[in-house]
Design goal:
The structure holds 2 protein chains of 2 kinds. Chain A is α/β, with parallel strands linked by helices. Chain A has a single domain (4-250), classed as Rossmann fold, CATH 3.40.50.300. Chain A has helices at residues 42-49, 72-79, 95-103, 111-115, 119-138, 154-167, 184-201, 212-218, 236-240, 243-250; strands at 4-13, 16-26, 31-35, 57-62, 65-66, 80-82, 172-176, 204-208, 221-226, 229-234. Chain A has a 6-stranded mixed beta sheet with strand order 6-7-8-3-9-10, sandwiched between helices. Chain A has a 4-stranded antiparallel beta sheet with strand order 2-1-4-5, with helices on one face. In chain A, helix 3 (95-103) packs across helix 5. Chain B has one domain. Chain B has helices at 2-31, 38-52, 60-89, 94-115, 139-161, 163-173, 175-180, 185-210, 221-231, 236-257, 262-276; strands at residues 130-132, 135-137. In chain B, strand 1 (130-132) and strand 2 (135-137) form a beta hairpin. The longest helix of chain B has 30 residues, at 2-31. The relative contact order of chain B is 0.20. Chain B is globular and about 60 Å long. In chain B, helix 10 (236-257) runs antiparallel to helix 11 (262-276). Chain B starts with a helix and ends in a 14-residue tail after the last helix. Chain B has a two-stranded antiparallel sheet. Classes of the chains: A alpha/beta, B mainly alpha.
Chain lengths: 255, 290
Amino acid sequence: MALLKVEHIYKSFGGVKAIQDFSIEANRGEIHGIIGPNGAGKTTIFNVISGIYPADEGKVLLDGKDITRMEQHLISREGMGRTFQNIRLFKGLSVLDNTMCAFDPRSRYGVPGSLLPLPKRYAEEKRGREICMGYLKMVGLESYAQEKPENMSYGYRRRLEIARALTCEPKVLLLDEPAAGLNPVEVGELTELILRLSRELGFAILLIEHRLELVMNISQIIHVQNFGKTIASGTPGQVRSDPGVIEAYLGKEEC
Amino acid sequence: MQILQYVINGIALGSVYALISTGFSLIFNVLKFSNFSHGALMTFSAFTGYFVAAANGWGLVPTILAAAATGSLVALAGEFVAFRRILIRNTSPIYFFVSSITLGTLFEGIVVLQVGANFYNYPRFFGKPLKLAGLVISQSDIIIFCISAFVLVVLALVIQKTRLGRALRSVSFDRDTASLMGIDVTRSIQFAFIISGALAGLAGVFLGINYTLYPTLGSLVVKGFIASVIGGLGSLPGAVIGAMLLGIVETTLISTIGSGYAPVFTFLIMLVFLLVRPRGIAGSNIQEKA
């Protein structure tokens, strides 16, 4: 069964039709690229899938479970991890604490354990730290655990966002322009990281990206959005030669 | 020696202000608005503590527990009635102000209806002041300081070291992102209100012990507000530092220029801070206005 199945979703804001009839089916280990010009509704697709806004119509199924109208934090707990176009880390919290926040739902102590120094709390905090350090190691940030994110480079902050999303134990990982603002070397490292995570953790990845070379290199399937509509979807080769895509990106040929 | 005496009295007074300003800052942190019902909640809880425990001849501890429990429960109910809908709808923070002022007026109204405009006194919980090398230290000051310090240290540990604190801090930074990472934002906000309410109850009892119990006791919340402005709105350590400074300055001023002019100067200090260093002593770059 597909890990993520989005069926004909629609979303409008007033008169603006941000998403019209978007569907996707992503399986374990697949990387799907979503591309399109600015304002094509790509981030809105992510926001609907992760529950920031409900879809006007259509359904989102995560591992067979209908999550269309669920609350954001419950969707996250079902196994949806995401990063943001404009990096949204918790400033003031250390790198480790940023990932520990995403570990919160998996912590097994509650209010009494927080108010009283019970052994359970220390055991659970230790378990959380170890698990989170594991994710930091996966993205190569283990030596920066006590650093504050605002003191780190853009590339590292992107990685930290990915580590935090991994802490949610995602079945589906949504990456919103992970290469924005990175230099070519960092883009290369990021590409490797995404491929490695996809191989090792076996989730489905949805990737929004403007850098076509990155998307074309790592995605198995590409969906091209324009003005809220899917104008093409298929393998990188198919999409590259699609006349509709060429028109959207380069404009119509004048005779 | 005289100065040392002011400092000691000031710290005792400051520790009560610290309870107020911390409770105030907690809510400011998570919801980014100044909770003006905090003062009335102090009054309400202090009176409940009086009638449930102190008036029956029970001691200080039951009175504090009754007041703190009342504060928590009423704050929790207040969150549900007055703030939840505004939060879910994501409407303008101005409605939080309106709601919190309304809620405060309601609490104060209930108190006035129940007790009239009379003054009440807590029974004497403490013995004679201690004299030590020329310094006079009242027992109530010592106990109040110790309890406040203990409560604030526990709170600091909870916020720094536990998942509840971490959730609270992440919600303070960015509600939406926190919830996308699986944190139950509503729970965290409820937790903030419970803690803030308990602090309000505790502070209410201490104010009642220091002064008397009267229906507009809650107006002393202004001291907590000044303290958080001096310390830096939204910063909990700042709130404590600001409160201590305010306590010391205030006791010194009262003894030197008299209690009539002292408030004038404390407000002047706040104005100076707002002019010169609006983010306060420990404040970060918080853009929201109080």
